[in-house]
Amino acid sequence: MIIVVGEGMLELSGGADARVSGWALGYGGDTLNSAVHLARLGQRVAFVTALGTDPFSESLRRDWTEEGLDLTLVRRDPDRRPALYAITTDAQGERSFTYWRSDSAARRMFALRDNDDVLAAAGEADLLYFSMISLAILPPEGRDAVFALCTRIRERGGRVAFDSNYRAALWESDAVARAVHARAVAVADIGLPTREDEQALTGLDDAVAIDAWWRDRGVGEVVVKLGGEGCFADGAVRPVPAKIVPVDTTGAGDAFNAGYLHARLNGGSIADSVTAGHVLAGYVIGRRGGIPAASHDAPYATLA
């Protein structure tokens, strides 16, 4: 089983010149996107978050259940609602985001009741996956709960995967973000950083140096994502299999992480797992939204 920690949000997606009537309502969130991809690939995935009791929250529950996610660890907050974000894209498919998330239910996911059930589930987990955004939305005690999960899973023989997905606006200060980032890296077995994020957090912009920085802190497996250039993994740059003109780059890294982790959990080599990540990311950037609906040409069956 895989445990994924994070925030699932309502998503409004549209093009560069979208009008009110042109917006499509869906859902997304960095670790949620990865969780859905992993479930589509056949993994058993439990998502840890909180939603409200409002109609939008209930709709999200239905949608995520239909995607195959285990929601037994999702809390209900009667006083809060899901966060909302809007995506706009330019002619090259590059996206920008507008968020309404400061009072979302997910921020209290570890404060709504005791966490014995989450800790018990950790004893069965092969992998815990979370990101810097997972940590950014939480108060300090919530971050401590995530790190306690990391410790429990590693003690039981499971592994921890961490993506340093950095959004400066979510953090109270750069100093706090860097301290939390360092703490998360120290409890990770698999690192999935992105060069731009690491430049902001560590000052490093060279993939080899980033890889060494993570490994020096105990991470045994590191994949540095380089956007259209591919990634740096296992001592070499791994280019994308084929260049794709992006429609919307939202969720590309999340899809890559899911494809990579799925392949590794199934015994794939690092090189083959990187290819699986690139294939799934390529599928996603050819469509709008952070987690596009699975179409007939989706690569899930071939990657499973």
What does it look like?
By secondary structure, the chain is an alpha/beta fold. Helix content is 38%, strand content 19%. The strands form three sheets. An eight-stranded mixed β-sheet has the order 4-1-9-10-11-12-13-14, sandwiched between helices. It is globular and about 50 Å long.
Note the run of SSEs as H and E: EEEHEEHEEEHEHHEHEHHEEEHHH
Helix content: 25-40%
Structural class call reads alpha/beta
Estimated share of beta-strand residues: 15-25%
**End-to-end separation:** 16 Å
Profile the largest sheet.
8 strands, mixed
Short description:
With 304 residues, the chain is of the alpha/beta class.
Topology:
Blueprint: E1 2-5, E2 9-13, E3 24-28, H1 30-40, E4 45-48, E5 50-51, H2 55-66, E6 75-76, E7 84-89, E8 95-100, H3 116-122, E9 127-131, H4 132-136, H5 140-155, E10 159-163, H6 174-185, E11 190-191, H7 195-202, H8 207-216, E12 221-225, E13 231-233, E14 236-238, H9 252-265, H10 270-285, H11 300-303
Parallel strand pairs: 1-4, 1-9, 2-7, 5-6, 9-10, 10-11, 11-12
Antiparallel strand pairs: 2-3, 7-8, 12-13, 13-14
